Amino acid sequence: xxxxxxxxxxxxxxxxxxxxxxxxxxxxxxxxxxxxxxxxxxxxxxxxxxxxxxxxxxxxxxxxxxxxxxxxxxxxxxxxxxxxxxxxxxxxxxxxxxxxxxxxxxxxxxxxxxxxxxxxxxxxxxxxxxxxxxxxxxxxxxxxxxxxxxxxxxxxxxxxxxxxxxxxxxxxxxxxxxxxxxxxxxxxxxxxxxxxxxxxxxxx
Length: 204
Hints:
By secondary structure, the protein is an all-alpha fold. It has one domain (32-197): MFS general substrate transporter like domains (Growth Hormone, Chain: A, Up-down Bundle), CATH 1.20.1250.20. Helix content is 89%, strand content 0%. 39% of the residues are buried.
Protein backbone atom coordinates (compact mmCIF):
# COMPACT_ATOMS: atom_id res chain seq x y z
CA UNK A 1 0.00 0.00 0.00
CA UNK A 2 2.82 2.41 0.90
CA UNK A 3 4.60 1.75 -2.39
CA UNK A 4 1.39 2.22 -4.38
CA UNK A 5 0.61 5.44 -2.51
CA UNK A 6 4.10 6.74 -3.24
CA UNK A 7 3.62 6.05 -6.94
CA UNK A 8 0.30 7.87 -6.92
CA UNK A 9 1.48 11.04 -5.18
CA UNK A 10 4.39 11.29 -7.62
CA UNK A 11 2.08 10.82 -10.62
CA UNK A 12 1.39 14.30 -12.01
CA UNK A 13 -1.92 13.33 -13.59
CA UNK A 14 -3.15 11.73 -10.38
CA UNK A 15 -2.25 14.87 -8.43
CA UNK A 16 -4.29 16.92 -10.90
CA UNK A 17 -7.36 14.70 -10.54
CA UNK A 18 -6.90 14.76 -6.77
CA UNK A 19 -6.96 18.57 -6.84
CA UNK A 20 -10.06 18.52 -9.07
CA UNK A 21 -11.95 16.03 -6.95
CA UNK A 22 -11.02 17.74 -3.68
CA UNK A 23 -12.11 21.15 -4.95
CA UNK A 24 -15.39 20.04 -6.50
CA UNK A 25 -16.36 17.67 -3.68
CA UNK A 26 -15.71 20.47 -1.20
CA UNK A 27 -18.86 22.10 -2.61
CA UNK A 28 -20.90 19.18 -1.33
CA UNK A 29 -19.22 19.05 2.05
CA UNK A 30 -19.46 22.77 2.74
CA UNK A 31 -22.93 23.48 1.38
CA UNK A 32 -24.47 20.41 3.01
CA UNK A 33 -22.97 21.51 6.32
CA UNK A 34 -24.04 25.16 6.21
CA UNK A 35 -27.39 24.81 4.42
CA UNK A 36 -29.26 25.03 7.74
CA UNK A 37 -27.37 28.21 8.63
CA UNK A 38 -28.03 29.70 5.20
CA UNK A 39 -31.71 28.77 5.36
CA UNK A 40 -32.12 30.43 8.74
CA UNK A 41 -30.30 33.59 7.69
CA UNK A 42 -32.47 34.00 4.60
CA UNK A 43 -35.79 33.34 6.29
CA UNK A 44 -36.41 29.69 5.44
CA UNK A 45 -37.63 27.05 7.91
CA UNK A 46 -35.93 23.82 8.92
CA UNK A 47 -38.46 21.97 6.75
CA UNK A 48 -37.39 24.10 3.80
CA UNK A 49 -33.78 23.27 4.56
CA UNK A 50 -34.58 19.56 4.52
CA UNK A 51 -36.39 19.95 1.20
CA UNK A 52 -33.41 21.80 -0.27
CA UNK A 53 -31.15 18.95 0.81
CA UNK A 54 -33.41 16.33 -0.74
CA UNK A 55 -33.48 18.16 -4.06
CA UNK A 56 -29.70 18.61 -3.93
CA UNK A 57 -29.26 14.84 -3.64
CA UNK A 58 -31.82 14.26 -6.41
CA UNK A 59 -29.91 16.64 -8.65
CA UNK A 60 -26.69 14.82 -7.82
CA UNK A 61 -28.24 11.47 -8.72
CA UNK A 62 -29.34 12.78 -12.11
CA UNK A 63 -25.95 14.38 -12.70
CA UNK A 64 -24.11 11.17 -11.89
CA UNK A 65 -26.31 9.24 -14.32
CA UNK A 66 -25.77 11.78 -17.09
CA UNK A 67 -22.00 11.93 -16.72
CA UNK A 68 -21.79 8.17 -16.25
CA UNK A 69 -23.59 7.66 -19.56
CA UNK A 70 -21.36 10.27 -21.24
CA UNK A 71 -18.17 8.57 -20.06
CA UNK A 72 -19.42 5.13 -21.04
CA UNK A 73 -20.27 6.30 -24.54
CA UNK A 74 -17.37 8.64 -25.32
CA UNK A 75 -14.68 8.18 -22.62
CA UNK A 76 -13.77 11.87 -22.82
CA UNK A 77 -12.48 12.12 -19.25
CA UNK A 78 -10.81 15.51 -19.56
CA UNK A 79 -13.88 17.10 -21.12
CA UNK A 80 -16.06 15.59 -18.40
CA UNK A 81 -13.84 16.99 -15.63
CA UNK A 82 -13.69 20.44 -17.19
CA UNK A 83 -17.47 20.38 -17.65
CA UNK A 84 -17.99 19.46 -13.99
CA UNK A 85 -15.69 22.32 -12.99
CA UNK A 86 -17.51 24.90 -15.10
CA UNK A 87 -20.87 23.65 -13.78
CA UNK A 88 -19.63 23.83 -10.18
CA UNK A 89 -18.48 27.44 -10.62
CA UNK A 90 -21.68 28.48 -12.42
CA UNK A 91 -24.05 26.67 -10.04
CA UNK A 92 -22.32 28.09 -6.96
CA UNK A 93 -22.61 31.62 -8.33
CA UNK A 94 -26.23 30.92 -9.22
CA UNK A 95 -26.99 29.59 -5.74
CA UNK A 96 -25.54 32.73 -4.15
CA UNK A 97 -27.81 35.01 -6.16
CA UNK A 98 -30.76 32.65 -5.65
CA UNK A 99 -30.40 33.03 -1.88
CA UNK A 100 -30.56 36.81 -2.24
CA UNK A 101 -34.01 36.50 -3.84
CA UNK A 102 -35.29 34.70 -0.71
CA UNK A 103 -37.65 32.77 -3.00
CA UNK A 104 -38.06 29.09 -2.17
CA UNK A 105 -38.46 27.67 -5.67
CA UNK A 106 -35.50 29.70 -7.00
CA UNK A 107 -33.27 28.47 -4.17
CA UNK A 108 -34.51 24.90 -4.70
CA UNK A 109 -33.62 24.92 -8.40
CA UNK A 110 -30.24 26.54 -7.79
CA UNK A 111 -29.30 24.13 -5.00
CA UNK A 112 -30.41 21.18 -7.13
CA UNK A 113 -28.02 22.36 -9.85
CA UNK A 114 -25.23 22.52 -7.25
CA UNK A 115 -25.90 18.87 -6.51
CA UNK A 116 -26.06 18.01 -10.22
CA UNK A 117 -22.60 19.49 -10.71
CA UNK A 118 -20.76 18.56 -7.53
CA UNK A 119 -21.99 14.99 -7.03
CA UNK A 120 -21.04 14.21 -10.63
CA UNK A 121 -17.38 14.53 -9.69
CA UNK A 122 -17.63 11.22 -7.82
CA UNK A 123 -18.33 9.29 -11.02
CA UNK A 124 -16.03 11.35 -13.24
CA UNK A 125 -13.02 11.51 -10.92
CA UNK A 126 -13.10 7.87 -9.84
CA UNK A 127 -13.38 6.73 -13.46
CA UNK A 128 -10.51 8.94 -14.60
CA UNK A 129 -8.38 7.92 -11.63
CA UNK A 130 -8.83 4.21 -12.33
CA UNK A 131 -7.82 4.76 -15.96
CA UNK A 132 -4.58 6.64 -15.26
CA UNK A 133 -3.43 4.58 -12.26
CA UNK A 134 -3.97 1.05 -13.61
CA UNK A 135 -2.77 -1.51 -12.45
CA UNK A 136 -2.62 0.07 -8.97
CA UNK A 137 -5.48 -1.09 -6.75
CA UNK A 138 -8.48 1.16 -7.28
CA UNK A 139 -9.20 1.20 -3.55
CA UNK A 140 -5.83 2.88 -2.93
CA UNK A 141 -6.35 5.65 -5.48
CA UNK A 142 -9.95 6.22 -4.38
CA UNK A 143 -8.85 6.37 -0.75
CA UNK A 144 -6.30 9.08 -1.51
CA UNK A 145 -8.88 11.07 -3.46
CA UNK A 146 -11.29 10.91 -0.54
CA UNK A 147 -8.56 11.82 1.94
CA UNK A 148 -7.67 14.96 0.01
CA UNK A 149 -11.30 15.99 -0.32
CA UNK A 150 -11.99 15.47 3.38
CA UNK A 151 -9.00 17.60 4.42
CA UNK A 152 -9.89 20.46 2.08
CA UNK A 153 -13.59 20.14 2.87
CA UNK A 154 -12.92 20.28 6.62
CA UNK A 155 -10.77 23.39 6.25
CA UNK A 156 -13.25 25.19 4.00
CA UNK A 157 -16.23 24.23 6.15
CA UNK A 158 -14.59 25.68 9.26
CA UNK A 159 -13.51 28.81 7.39
CA UNK A 160 -16.96 29.42 5.89
CA UNK A 161 -18.69 28.78 9.21
CA UNK A 162 -16.42 31.26 10.98
CA UNK A 163 -16.92 33.88 8.27
CA UNK A 164 -20.69 33.59 8.52
CA UNK A 165 -20.62 33.77 12.31
CA UNK A 166 -18.26 36.75 12.42
CA UNK A 167 -19.98 38.93 9.80
CA UNK A 168 -23.48 40.09 9.07
CA UNK A 169 -25.75 38.09 6.79
CA UNK A 170 -24.73 39.57 3.44
CA UNK A 171 -21.00 39.97 4.08
CA UNK A 172 -20.70 36.53 5.67
CA UNK A 173 -22.57 34.81 2.86
CA UNK A 174 -20.61 36.69 0.20
CA UNK A 175 -17.28 35.80 1.82
CA UNK A 176 -18.28 32.16 2.15
CA UNK A 177 -19.29 31.87 -1.49
CA UNK A 178 -16.15 33.72 -2.58
CA UNK A 179 -14.15 30.94 -0.91
CA UNK A 180 -16.18 28.22 -2.63
CA UNK A 181 -15.99 29.86 -6.04
CA UNK A 182 -12.23 30.32 -5.72
CA UNK A 183 -11.78 26.66 -4.77
CA UNK A 184 -13.90 25.56 -7.74
CA UNK A 185 -11.93 27.78 -10.13
CA UNK A 186 -8.70 26.16 -8.92
CA UNK A 187 -10.22 22.73 -9.56
CA UNK A 188 -11.35 23.76 -13.04
CA UNK A 189 -7.90 25.09 -13.93
CA UNK A 190 -6.42 21.79 -12.79
CA UNK A 191 -8.89 19.93 -15.02
CA UNK A 192 -7.92 22.06 -18.01
CA UNK A 193 -4.28 20.96 -17.66
CA UNK A 194 -5.19 17.26 -17.59
CA UNK A 195 -3.95 14.80 -20.15
CA UNK A 196 -6.67 13.78 -22.67
CA UNK A 197 -6.15 10.06 -22.13
CA UNK A 198 -8.63 8.91 -24.77
CA UNK A 199 -6.57 10.48 -27.54
CA UNK A 200 -3.43 8.80 -26.22
CA UNK A 201 -5.14 5.43 -26.01
CA UNK A 202 -6.45 5.69 -29.55
CA UNK A 203 -3.09 6.70 -31.00
CA UNK A 204 -1.18 3.89 -29.25
